[in-house]
Design brief:
Order of helices and strands of chain A: EEHEEEEEHHHHHHHHH
Mean pLDDT of chain A: 92
Radius of gyration of chain B: 24 Å
Helix content of chain A: 25-40%
Shape of chain B: globular
CATH architecture of the domain at 5-54 and 134-246 and 389-460 in chain B: 3-Layer(bba) Sandwich
Strand order of the largest sheet of chain B: 7-3-2-11-18
Strand content of chain B: 5-15%
Structural class of chain B: alpha/beta
Oligomer: heterodimer
Number of helices of chain B: 18
CATH class of the domain at 5-54 and 134-246 and 389-460 in chain B: Alpha Beta
Helix content of chain B: 25-40%
Distance between the termini of chain A: 80 Å
Mean pLDDT of chain B: 93
CATH class of the largest domain in chain A: Mainly Alpha
CATH superfamily of the largest domain in chain A: Alpha-helical ferredoxin
Distance between the termini of chain B: 59 Å
Number of strands of chain B: 20
Shape of chain A: elongated
Strand content of chain A: 15-25%
Structural class of chain A: alpha+beta
Radius of gyration of chain A: 22 Å
Number of strands of chain A: 7
Largest sheet of chain B: 5 strands, parallel
Low-confidence stretches of chain A: none
CATH superfamily of the domain at 5-54 and 134-246 and 389-460 in chain B: FAD/NAD(P)-binding domain
CATH architecture of the largest domain in chain A: Orthogonal Bundle
CATH topology of the domain at 5-54 and 134-246 and 389-460 in chain B: FAD/NAD(P)-binding domain
Strand order of the largest sheet of chain A: 2-1-5-3-4
Chain lengths: 258, 649
């Protein structure tokens, strides 16, 4: 096994400010960036703050910016960097720093609450749901989301525009609207809730100009833009501006046989 | 006196994994104002790592399945040491708990006729695991999380406040359960972000903190699994049950070293993956124990036919319960037939087309590709046993999930003992969380809302808890001469102590156990306890991981001692407890439960004597299995497990 000494720069500080701190640290075969951060904690900086949980790319806790790129630390192998490269690790930029690599991601939990929940179909009890696999495939793709919030962090609508945070739910939660809208048994429509319209009116879908930055950073490779946001936009726009759709929605269908 | 913020709630749930969230949902729906406290962010609990599925006899894939068959499989898997009433309730209620998830928005994989698809798993007679690819745990957590949000939205509509009836305190750690005499009065906790202390006053506390795997070096468990709930219960006067039973999952990654222990889901085998040694033999055929001889295929041909025709062929031995497979892998490696990095080969590449592998096992494909540079559609994986689950836990009443020894204390999920006996079947964990999470929430809510007068929080206990939590900041080495040394030592590094603890448990109380090694482990644990009292930290209280670890060490040391003492006491091999010096199962031991209690429950600090230690062990005879449940088994099978006198009672 071959070990070497890597140079790291890790942002340390808190809400009052901070800066990059230099470290030299041992790296072994097969390690990921999170291993190195842990080694720093155990040997050089015991109070270095970092969030992590599963260390297997399943929980989405250890999000950070590595050499400026939003990534999961547990899924970033050291072998992708040159041995003489200095590796810079900084906290997610879009969210307020708490300490070191830990940020306040409360924005995301607030947005999650603003999305109307699944509406169970009336008249179907537990055990009576029937859905075809091809009909659940689309929503299942979005439910792969591990809520690492890298897409929320990278989206330029809020990345450097705090003022947009009020009105924009971000890719993760617009995708949640799409997921529910495509759920084969969601009964929102029957209760008068038009999910496509809320995406546009309440959650800021119009701010998205499909630059696909969110898709690029998604560690689960979810096609957020192509499969969630664009279809949602198309359907929202159909409803809003298409005169035929508008007309159709105003004229009730002829009752069968009558 | 420390000034500590206090809030009043009806029910406090410690832990926000599957069991904790299910308990909280139930308690809130029963009208109790409910607080959930979790160490991580909401939605990140260890449950997300569960891959295979939720075992529930819905009979969607094979109509012969029903709760009785599920009950039988669970008892067999646990080698009949299960608290049988829990196994019964679990088998009966699991289907309702799964179907209920659909009404909350869960999207499971489907059968052709549109029902929930069910897959094969080790020890289950029929395909029984409801699943979503190999990310079922994530679906479970997200569904429960979103149900919590849905309830909060309802509350907001009614009260104008999302958190008026159900609040999640995320990134907070509970260090003590508070009591008035024998009744629970609340919890003492700190906020990880600020280090600020607070007290939640509540007459009912549900412990749902999961397991203990972080006491072992090679584990599939996340950092949160430090045995907090086990320790909180012990410290609150509640006993732990059968702590010697620790499940080593047969297939963890073995390479590269930094990911050693990360889980490779059993679905790989359920869907057709096979185990081979370095001589290219499918060795599991040599390891079918007598009790399972009639149920498993004796040839590769028969095993391979089973996937398409399960009614006329027996199952492949790769699908034996986990304890059997883990021991077999261990034996192969020891006999020199291991893979280059000390495991064995698990292969799907020669068994299924690449695109099927990518569809059915997407996160495994991803995990090996990203972490080990291995393409599992083209080459075998290298796997070996990893510490995965603790069957032992807080002793509870089967029906109510109430802990013994502390009124108002409840436990559900991995932290509770009994349900799985000596070994848990894959898939039975997620169903356990739902069935007993709900029951714990229900009974905690009933108890809390029905009380005329609530126990009071004692200021002295709060002060003591605060002092205990602050100690790592003023830790000092012993004065010169105090420990026989001339020089004084600097404070101990908590990370070093943790690593030594993990090495000790891994090497001395691991998958194969021997008496002298366990004695040695107890000595080492005593030494670590003394040193842990000097565990010191740098910096301040704001998000300080060194401090958090120093506090978690207390819990890991307590729980590790329970495991080591109970393992030393049980002189037989059964399920997740294998003794080299007592290699066979002993029917006389089937009726014996081992209970661990805190030696000094008055709140005094850890005893340092290795012989006496902090834990007192007791034995209890189990309740006889109800006759109608026993009647579900053939007599010939029962004689393998039950003692003579039980059979004729």
């Amino acid at each position: 096994m071959s070990s070497y000494e890597a140079r790291f720069q890790v942002w340390r500080g808190d809400v009052g400010g901070g800066g990059l701190e230099d470290f030299k640290v041992e790296v072994n075969d097969g390690e990921v960036v999170l291993d190195i951060i842990h080694r720093l904690q155990a040997t050089q900086a015991p109070d270095l703050a970092v969030r992590w949980n599963c260390k297997a790319g399943k929980c989405g806790s250890c999000s950070a910016e590595i050499n400026g790129r939003p990534r999961l630390m547990c899924m970033t192998r050291m072998s992708v960097f040159g041995r003489d490269e200095t590796i810079t690790v900084t906290p997610l930029r879009t969210f307020p720093v708490i300490r070191d690599l830990v940020t306040d991601v409360g924005f995301n939990y607030r947005k999650a609450r603003e999305i109307p929940s699944f509406v169970p179909p009336p008249g179907l009890g537990p055990g009576e749901y029937r859905m075809q696999q091809e009909d659940v495939d689309r929503s299942q793709e979005f439910r792969k989301c591990i809520e690492c919030f890298l897409c929320q962090n990278t989206c330029h609508v809020v990345r450097d525009h705090d003022e947009n945070k009020q009105v924009f739910a971000g890719p993760r939660f617009l995708m949640r609207v799409a997921e529910l809208d495509m759920h084969p048994l969601d009964a929102a429509q029957e209760t008068g809730l038009d999910r496509k319209r809320t995406a546009q009116d309440d959650h800021g879908l119009g701010y998205c100009n499909i630059t696909k930055c969110c898709t690029e950073v998604c560690p689960e490779n979810i096609k957020i833009t192509d499969n969630a946001l664009i279809p949602l936009k198309e359907r929202a726009i159909d409803r809003k501006y298409d005169p035929l759709v508008w007309l159709g929605s105003k004229i009730s269908r002829r009752p069968p046989g009558g | 006196m420390t000034v500590v913020e206090r809030q009043e709630w009806d029910v406090v749930v410690v832990g926000a994994g599957g069991a904790g969230l299910r308990a909280a949902i139930e308690a809130r729906e029963r009208g109790a104002r409910t607080a959930v406290i979790c160490k991580s962010l909401f939605g990140k609990a260890h449950t997300v790592m569960a891959e295979g599925g939720i075992a529930a006899a819905m009979g969607n894939a094979n109509p012969h399945d029903n709760w009785q068959v599920h009950f039988r499989d669970t008892m067999r898997g646990g080698k009949f040491l299960n608290q049988w009433r829990m196994a019964e309730l679990h088998a009966r209620e699991a289907p309702d708990r799964v179907w209920e998830l659909e009404t909350w928005g869960a999207l499971f994989d489907r059968t052709k006729d549109g029902r929930i698809s069910q897959r094969n798993f080790g020890g289950h007679e029929y395909p029984r695991l409801a699943h979503v690819g190999d990310r079922t745990g994530l679906e479970l957590i997200r569904t429960l999380q979103q149900k919590v949000v849905a309830l909060q939205q309802e509350d907001e509509k009614e009260t104008g406040e999302y958190e008026s009836r159900l609040k999640v305190f995320q990134e907070c750690t509970v260090t003590r359960v508070l009591k008035e005499r024998d009744r629970v009065s609340g919890v003492f906790a700190y906020e990880r972000e600020t280090g600020r202390f607070f007290v939640l006053e509540a007459p009912a506390v549900v412990i749902a903190t999961g397991g203990i795997g972080k006491s072992f070096k090679v584990t599939s468990n996340s950092w949160e699994y430090t045995g907090d709930g086990h320790a909180l219960a012990l410290l609150a006067g509640a006993p732990l049950l059968n702590m010697e039973f620790v499940q080593f999952h047969p297939t963890g990654m073995v390479w590269p070293p930094s990911v050693k222990g990360i889980l490779v889901t059993e679905s790989v085998r359920g869907d057709g993956g096979v185990l081979r040694n370095s001589e290219d033999e499918r060795f599991m055929f040599d390891y079918i124990p007598d009790v399972f001889k009639e149920k498993y295929a004796q040839s590769e041909e028969e095993a391979d036919r089973w996937y398409d025709d399960p009614d006329n062929n027996r199952r492949p031995p790769e699908l034996l319960p986990r304890d059997e497979v883990a021991r077999a892998i261990n034996a192969e490696v020891k006999a020199g037939r291991g893979s280059p990095h000390g495991g064995v080969f698990l292969d799907v590449s020669t068994r299924m087309p690449a695109e099927v592998i990518r569809r059915r096992l997407p996160s495994m494909y991803h995990q090996f590709k990203e972490l080990a540079d291995v393409d599992i559609t083209a080459e075998p994986m290298e796997v070996g046993p990893t510490c995965h689950y603790v069957m032992g836990g807080i002793a509870v009443d089967s029906d109510t999930a109430a802990a013994r020894g502390a009124t108002g204390l409840y436990a559900a999920g991995e932290v509770a003992g009994g349900m799985h006996g000596s070994n848990r079947l894959g898939g039975n964990s997620l169903s356990d969380l739902l069935v007993f999470g709900r029951r714990a929430g229900l009974h905690a809510a009933e108890y809390a809302t029905g009380l005329a007068e609530r126990p009071l929080v004692d200021d002295i206990q709060v002060d003591t808890a605060a002092a205990e939590a602050l100690r790592p900041f003023s830790a000092e080495g012993p004065a010169p001469g105090e420990d026989g040394e001339e020089q004084s030592h600097p404070p101990e590094n908590p990370y070093t102590l943790h690593q030594e603890l993990q090495q000790t448990m891994n090497d001395l109380v691991g998958i194969i156990r021997r008496e002298p090694e366990m004695q040695q482990a107890l000595k080492k644990l005593a030494e670590l306890r003394v040193r842990a009292r000097r565990a010191g930290v740098e910096g301040h209280r704001q998000f300080n991981p060194g401090w958090h670890l120093a506090l978690d060490l207390r819990n890991m040391l307590l729980v590790s001692e329970c495991v080591a003492r109970a393992a030393l006491e049980r002189t037989e091999s059964r399920g997740g407890h294998t003794r080299e010096d007592y290699p066979t199962m002993d029917r006389a031991w089937r009726r014996i439960n081992l209970l661990c209690r805190l030696t000094d429950p008055t709140g005094g600090l850890a005893a340092t004597d290795p012989v006496r230690g902090q834990i007192t062990l007791g034995r209890e005879t189990t309740e006889p299995i109800r006759p109608d449940l026993l009647a579900l088994f053939e007599k010939e099978e029962l004689v393998k497990y039950l003692a003579e006198e039980e059979l004729y009672e």
